[in-house]
Amino acid sequence: MVTDGMTGFLVEPGEVEATASALERLLTDDGLSARFGVAGRARAEELFDLEKTAGALARLFRRHLGLLRHAFRKRPAKVRDKNFDIVRFVGGAEGDA
After folding, report:
1. How many CB atoms lie within 10 A of CB 78?
2. What's the pLDDT score for residue 58?
């Protein structure tokens, strides 16, 4: 999510000098943290846009639901669990084979 130098600083774990240098830049450059904040918010809104994310998730569900339907057409229609009716879930009907 963080783009080094654009939305924040990335430093390797344990790199004390690199961490100190990044913190010093944030403390001495008056507008840097604000610029990182604006750029970070824009990046987060781009990456996690509700419509894009929901659309991608819906496509994923439709694709996997289609795979389930295909798989269960080759099996008996009455694949049931007392708490879950797979035939109804994948859109099949009694007697479909």
Report:
1. 12
2. 85
**Cα four-point dihedral sign 62, 66, 67, 69:** positive
What percent of the chain is modeled with pLDDT above 90? 43
Please give the C-alpha separations between residue 25 and each of 10, 37, 62, 68, 73, in angstroms, as whole numbers. Answer: 13, 15, 48, 54, 62
Structure token pair of residue 52? 């894009």
The mean predicted confidence, pLDDT, of the chain is 80
Report d(CA 56, CA 52) in Å as an integer: 6
Q: By percentage, how much of the chain surpasses pLDDT 70?
A: 69
d(CA 22, CA 17): 9
| Helix axes 16-28 and 32-47, enclosed angle (nearest 10) | 110
* pTM (2 d.p.): 0.53
The residue-averaged pLDDT of 7-20 equals: 96
Q: How many CB atoms lie within 10 A of CB 6?
A: 13
How far is it, in rounded angstroms, from Cα 36 to Cα 42?
Answer: 10
